Amino acid sequence: MEAKMRKWWHDKVAYQIYPKSFYDTNGDGIGDLRGIIAKLDYLKELGIDLIWISPIYKSPFVDQGYDISDYYGIAPEFGTMEEFEELLAEAKKRGIQIVMDLVINHCSDKHEWFQKALADPEGEYADYFYFREGKDGNPPGNYRSYFGGSCWEPVPGTSKYYFHAFAKEQPDLNWENPRMKQDLYDMINWWLDKGLAGFRIDAIINIKKDVNFPDLEPDGPDGLAGYHRAVEQTNGVGELLEELKNNTFAKYDAFTVGEVFNMHEDELSEFIGENGHFSTIFDFSAHCLSEGEHGWYEAPAIEFKEWRRAIVDSQLEVQKVGFKANIIENHDEPRGVSRFLPEYARNAAGTKMLGTVSLLLRGIPFLYQGQEIGMQNCEWNNSGEWDDISTRDQYQTARKAGLTEKEALRVCADMSRDNARTPMQWSSEENAGFTSGTPWMKVNPNYSEINVKAQQENEDSVLRYYQKLIALRKSEEYKEVFTYGTFAPVYEEQESVMAFYRISEEENQETPKKRVLVAANFGREAAELPLEYKVSKVLLSNLPENQAGEKLILAGCGVMVLECEI
Ligand code: TEU
Ligand code: CA
Predict the structure, then answer these.
(1) 484-564 belongs to which homologous superfamily?
(2) Of 163, 175, 258, 297, which cross-links 281 as Cys (Cβ 3.0–4.6 Å)?
(3) Cα(480) to centroid(ligand 1), Å
């Protein structure tokens, strides 16, 4: 690793805030910037270095802020620009940096550019988007948007249509237009000048289009073909990404984490190599295991061994070129405890085990709000409880495919993005202490059991454990091995064990060579394993029954982090 350049962000631990559901300070039921400021000490104590905030720009909130109507303005629901600047300054005092969400594949249909385009469909701003003539009164092409229905929406009063990969209220921006690109670069630099650490970059692979939009073989009863299939077949996104980087991020040494699905696998080093398009991209390899062919109703359950294989393969591949950002969950995914752990492990021990494995992988850990207290999927009683545009579409898709109401409810309850969007559980007080008003979204009824306050008062809690885990990862003594150490899987022949070594390579005075074993038993029964190396120190253990002596004994849902002789 010494040969490769070290970057300032390599050893950081990040935390994603979904602002609408984090903490409300003015009683309107919506989390706000003051709420984030109020919880900075909490995040500091947890050990967080970087905060990624989901979009806080002005927005009609059709897709909860991922539809931006003004890139230069803070949504009044969240606060003001002065409050944002205060947040930056207060975070900085605590050694915490802020990463904003950058949504530049599309904007809102209420954005000035789109409004101007509608007003003059032959004019300059129409070319900020993809306006195309229909074909014989039909849309220009047959792609299905990510949120259901055609990617093409009529431009009122014309025979034209505009393209949207997501909702019709999220028109895609035309990345073939140099003026549009320059406007985005200016906006990005304007934010970076405020002192941001960087950006999480939304849905970015979608910016490169085959502008002929050739029809594809339909893949569903609606006669449409999923737009992601077109993305997979398109080449040339790299040129756009390099240009974007060189005009913006590179000038500031900013940290960037791309949300990239459907990348051509052989392009990994171009994306995250030493001079990659991004600092890092999220590792979704485990999450993709539950992708259903035609929707959530076909989503397969995740088997432990498949999950382990996906993570191990990804780690081995990625370490050859760079770092990925490791997540258990985010605002688009169900809660990891409910998804990746078998039912018997959905408790404090299992939650700590899953957290240990994820945070000690090689890469940049991103925690999602509530993960550190082990928040779980919500109970959903009827489809009316969902706010999320994608969940509502998936529910309809499931019904159209013949599932009963009850079956469709079950499927979407397991996969809904709203599982991650219920308010943060701060205490056992009303509304989980999230708001004194009426929360914008249902509070998970389990808040009386799972909440920050109760866990702060319990030394054995998931929260206290996460604090220790992050402190270990960042400690002077082990930072080197957990940041740069090689990942090497072990005990792969064991049915229910996920285990790996982290081995620091270089040997010098400051950073002596180390070998750390992380071993987790996802089984219900205890597991006994022979030790390959003598254990010199127990760094972490989640259950008193775990033992590391001649042999390694892991209780059911047991995890240990052990320094071994080299
Ligand atoms: O997500 C992009 C993306 O591909 C998701 O739509 C994903 O396929 C989906 O969540 C699965 O249900 C990003 C944001 O993270 C997401 O919240 C936005 O809705 C989307 O972009 C559009 O901006
Ligand atoms: Ca509020």
Answers:
(1) Golgi alpha-mannosidase II (2.60.40.1180)
(2) 258
(3) 34
